[in-house]
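Here's what a typical entry looks like (Protein STRICTOSIDINE SYNTHASE-LIKE 2):
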Amino acid sequence: MKLLSLVVISGIFFSLTNFSSESPKHGESMLTVHLPEFRLIPTTGASGPESFVFDFSGEGPYTGLSDGRIVKWLSNESRWIDFAVTTPTRCALLS
C-alpha cells in the first residue's frame, strides 16, 4: 500500500512539472509547475509572499510579507488579516 501511494504521488508530481535539460535563461525558472486553476490575491502595503504554511487545524495559509507582517488568509471572508509582526520598526498591536 505504501509503495502504491508513493507511485501515485510521484506520478502526480511529475505530471505537474516540466523538467528541461537546457539551462534556464536569465529570469526563467528551472522548474515549471502547471496548476489547473489559481487566483491571484493581492496584498496591501507590502510585497510578498515567498512561501505559505498551514496550521495543524488546516487553517490558513499564513505567509510573510516584505514589511515584516505575517498574514493569515480567512477563506470564509476572502481576505488577509494581520496575524503577527516580526519587525520592531512596525508599530502595530495585534490581538
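The chain has one domain: 2-85.

More examples are in the samples folder.
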